[in-house]
Amino acid sequence: MISSSEYGSHSWELLVTVDHQYEEVQKEFLLRVTGDLHIGGLMLKLVEQIKISQDWSDYALWWEQKKCWLLKTHWTLDKCGVQADAKLLFTTQHKMLRLRLPNMKTVRLKVSFSSVVFKAVSDICKILNIRRSEELSLLKQSEDALKKKKKKDKTSKEPVTEDILNLCNSPVSSGLSGSPGLYSKTMTPIYDPTSGTPASATITWFSDSPLTEQNCSILALSHPICSPETLAEMYQPRTLADKAKLNAGWLDSSRSLMEQGILEDDQLLLRFKYYSFFDLNPKYDAVRINQIYEQARWAILLEEIDCTEEEMLIFAALQAYHVSKLSLSSEAQDFTSESEVDEVEAALSNLEVTLEGGNTSNTLEDITDIPKLADNLRLVRPRKLSLKTIKPYWFVFKDTSVSYFKNKESAQGEPIEKLNLKGCEVVPDVNVAAKKFGIKLLIPVADGMNEVYLRCENENQYARWMAACVLASKGKTMADSSYHPEVHKILSFLKMKNWTMSPQAVSDPESIDMKPECFVSLRFTKKYRSKQLAARILEAHQNVSQMLLVEAKLHFIQAWQSLPEFGLSYYIVRFRGSKKDDVLGVSYNRLIRIDIATGDPITTWRFSNMKQWNVNWEIRQVAIEFDQNVSIAFTCLSADCKIIHEYIGGYIFLSTRSKDQNETLDEDLFHKLTGGQE
């Protein structure tokens, strides 16, 4: 019996549904509560009524109508705003989730549905042994891709069975903290830099982890590509608007999975969201390097990023080489000696400099005399109503500007024109086979972009001038310590492109067990017959055939980073005062306004010139202020404006990383920069 005092004016009945597996036990409980009862007390009262002996520590209260967790157990019902009409669900915080990785493999594991996505991704990366989890996030598959998948499932005669790697017994899965050493190199498994497999000394690391040595190989090693037919059935964006749809599904890093409508056993994509790869090290990052390589490979095959025919053949050669190398990897790793590993590390050290993506430390040379370039180049200016004009001039590159003169003798006087390259777009215009070494410069002017081409005579001249232009566009001079590594990177990429036909290598393409259609996008399979493609890939393969497995992956990533469109995430926006839609490209260091019809850049704004940015949540408009009283505002049409706001804040957060931080993350700073105030 309930005493009359309990029926006081302050008490009321609250309905709580319990999410448990016992069918014979009731699931709905009516509890009499008061407003000053705290959440912890409510859960205790509920567990006492359920009368099931089990561990309830992972359970918490979910408020259906408000779509939020009641995790602050010391808060009272009044403080939370819970009243008699509230529908509460007592459910587990960790639930099963299927994740499709960049290598198209699906893993199934338990993830916290109550932690913010930023923390959930960090826990996932601990299970998968991927360092630098801040570079990744979770993405809902685009509607178009899902439609194509459903259409494929309907037309296929055989039932589709997906190969899923089950990692549900992980320490993180059971609600405990994961391996304590994600950001500690002493606790991170060491990999053989040659083959990417766990080194023998650290195989014991996997003994208590769901990431067994076999599972680790699935994540750290590249596997043969799917058939050309499967490739043809996958969704491929055709226009900039299609590419914008791919980026609409990023989850909000400041909210939990449950708050964003994700249900147990749903499938999400785990992807590298931010193209700023910091501190890549083959010794510790075999899984991370392989997953970046796989994301790059699929982006190229599905034409999510454009590349020339010459570049496509290089990518194909590196991929084909991976497949042939993998078949020998099990034998190769048995013969790797300590000295060979040291040689590999030495060979990769140069690559690491260019792949780090962080700020390089300034050295003494940065404050001494700034070097300059002076050379004969040809200037090409496109004309709207006539053919483009090509004229030779004497060019001088100093600081962040290029000046050109009629000849060398007149270089002491006033230049014909001085081009300030700070904030410009630099695009390679190269065809090594045709001996064409061009640099396309899109220089911001009041009414848009001024288009100028520079033509160089040879590879060395091109590498020096291209590196200078790239640095100048970021506001850096040739005195910066990153200039010489940039020259080296450009020359190594040109060297890969510069192959000559060897009759021995391509005399009989059919003798090589290779389906060339698996390594190039559909555009090229339609253009060439299979034999022609195989021959051309084998030609290109000669320049990469001596590379080690991990080295080839890093070269692939480096070549991907050299593409003009690398790192751009597209969104359809409407700028304030404009009557038509535009595309906004978000990159690691800039924003680009792009004409949606032609794909031409209109204006570029650098993050380094940004003073502040904010969002008007009522009208969903992003407003940004730059130096020199430049301000822009736009509404996002293809996605929620919070996604762009988070992208900008995320890239600024990543630019603050340094090796001196002992690899710890300031999560509060990330949320301050990306969260916004809704």
Automatic annotation (TrEMBL):
GO molecular function of the protein, one example?
Answer: integrin binding
Coiled-coil segments on the chain, per record? none
Question: Among the record's GO biological process terms, what is one?
Answer: cell-matrix adhesion
One of the record's GO cellular component terms: cell projection
Predominant cellular place of this UniProt entry's protein: other
Q: Where in the cell is it found?
A: Cell junction; Cell projection
The record's annotation in Gene3D superfamilies points to: Phosphatidylinositol 3-kinase Catalytic Subunit, Chain A, domain 1, Pleckstrin-homology domain (PH domain)/Phosphotyrosine-binding domain (PTB)
Q: Does the keyword Zinc apply?
A: no
Alphabetical keyword list? Cell adhesion, Cell junction, Cell projection
Asked whether the UniProt record includes Ribosomal protein among its keywords, one would answer no
The PH domain extends over 378-474
Task: Enumerate the CDD domains for this protein.
Answer: FERM_B-lobe, FERM_C_fermitin, FERM_F0_KIND1, FERM_F1_KIND1, PH_fermitin
Q: Which family does it belong to?
A: Belongs to the kindlin family.
Spell out the protein name for this chain: FERM1 protein
